[in-house]
Amino acid sequence: MYYYKKKGKDIIKYEVKIEREKLNKIRFQIINNCSHIEHVKNRVTDRMRPSEFDYEHIRNYNEKYLGVIEYNDFYSTREDEYSIEYDYYKHPPLVGFIDNLLNGDTNAIEEIQKLKDEVVDKEQKLLDEQQKIISKLNSTTETNKEKQIYLLNENQEKLLEYYKEKELNKNQVPSSKYKNKVLSCIELKQVEIIPYKTVLEVMRFFACCSAKKMESSLNKVLKLKL
Hints:
Blueprint: E1 2-7, E2 10-18, H1 20-34, E3 36-45, E4 58-70, E5 78-90, H2 93-102, H3 108-113, H4 122-139, H5 142-168, H6 179-183, E6 186-195, H7 196-205, H8 216-225
Antiparallel strand pairs: 1-2, 2-6, 3-5, 4-5
Helix pairs in contact: 1-2, 4-5
């Protein structure tokens, strides 16, 4: 595999070698230690049940058979219904970048190099929202108070859910902690360098040109080289 990077006035071509086994192990560590965990509790029909064998996303899966649902449609459809509960592991973007790289997309290298964790203070956002609702509640007319009380109760429920989620994720760490480990699995060997200006000239030369418009032997050479 090859990776192309613009540096100054040049384009550098690198040969890419990946320690796939080591990278796959780190990938699994990232899933375990950096995913955002969400607790899911729901009632679903048989065809909507998630796969309990999807260990990369689903942990602590439990289900209970509730019975049969009958639909009064043309076919008199019947479906089994279940109560399900599990922890869902939402992978950080770094896992997706690793997957892309393992599938041959070397542009993922740049995404990994630029990786920064986004910090969102969800608690403060909810508390700010709560304060706005309380302010409106104190100044609103009697007619609109019912709506503000409803919004306040809704906000309280969101806060309770947030605190449960926070407890569930208390041992998780930012994926940026694994960035250098991931990059250590990627070896870049410079094999060629070309002025960026030359690349632009070649691109302009072949502008609006399709494979059908090229001489067949030239097309084969370009495909082989590119």
